[in-house]
Amino acid sequence: MALLFVMHLTHTAWSAVVNYQYSAPITLPETSQPEELAQVLLTPEIFRVTRDDLSDLRIVRRDNQHPIPFLVECVTHEQEEVRRAPDKPWTMTTQLPVQDGQPLSFVFERSRERGMLPMTMGLNIDTPLTQFEQDVKVEASEDGKNWKTVVSQVRIFDYSPFANVRVTEIPVASGIREQYLRLTFAHAYVQRLSQSTQVRTTTTVATPEQVERTYTEEKIPFRLNGIKGWTAEKHWVRDVRPIVSRDIEIVDTPPPTFAKRFPERHALVFAAHRMPLEYLQLDSTARIITVGYELYAERSYADGSGEPWWERIKTGTLERTMFRDYRYENMTIAWSPPTRASRYALVFYKDANTDAKTISIKEAKGPDYRIVFPYNQGEQVELWAGLPLATRSSLGYYPEQIQMLRRTVTTPVTGTLGDLITYVDYTPKVKTSVNTTLLLSIAIILAVAALGFTVFKAMQRMPEEVEN
What we know:
Helix content: 10-25%
Strand order of the largest sheet: 6-7-13-9-10-11
Strand content: over 45%
Mean pLDDT: 77
Radius of gyration: 36 Å
Structural class: mainly beta
Distance between the termini: 43 Å
């Protein structure tokens, strides 16, 4: 017991004299409850001076520096999400007869088994054809006779023989609640080009190779297998983790590490000031682009020893295709879990060096974090952050105490930690109401006395030697 008492006092004394580098007073709102929960949102200034795992954060009472149990958690909330759901099946009932050069119309119906029909928010045209363009008109009717226009004109197309481009979806902003649907296609026959190539070569060096290409225009009837609709369902989702925009700075000169490692690759380096990041939105001046990338984060040891190194955290491909009414792009980079680093480097593959130079970072995002802790009315507390490099500490979380409290109030920091980046000298803050040196001396004396008493009892139990 005495040894445990010594360990407890030693830990308490160590916690009191640990030299945290920064502090910020926290203004607590008044409360009529005996105990309340407060939350403090971590600011960019706090992220700049803390470790990756935020283990060098403390909430303490201002008068005696006693620690207060706290939690560090990611900010979450509830929100409504809209998801697609399959619509009731549409059955083709009529294909109106047409002539060449005239529009082509189809009539569809869905069964009304009971009650109101679901609201259709979009249609997907199922056709086996490729290489086509069609303008479509969508009309709806309750009785199949009186029609109203819901989409006057929308284009569907397929260019798959030349590129991976196909659009057959028709969004309906106003929705369709009616039982009957009529689709009118502008052309009953679609025209497309088929290419045949003839190659002629010659043995004469002065005569270049000649290539002849012949294009034949085909006219084929437009075919429709059916349509599939979708509805929009709303769901409330718990523990949604929103991400917020973060300020970053582009670094003009790549680090020497990448100049040596990737001498022929284009690198986009930016400083993030240790803010949590998990998402990048990129942009490019090119209309068609496909570029592979590797994303690196600059890492360092928690105690500041050694040289920092670069860790690869994500690989992938950026894509964009913009052609007429078609637009497809995948110009985002997302990774999990979120990372904290001073700098990041986006390195593009060698064979895409020209396209890579057109890419820029439009926005960087990451989650918010907060500290949650209990407090009493009239209590004054401080936030401590940033341990010296040679110091290690353990997390001071007590979830079971936090979860016992129900209500939570938002607690603002008076100013930001950036306004309070002052070195904290804790020498005068060690309170004289309890003499730590005296307590340590008493504890050591008690431990020595207990150890001596234990040795004395052990010697009494030893059997005496028997002389022969």
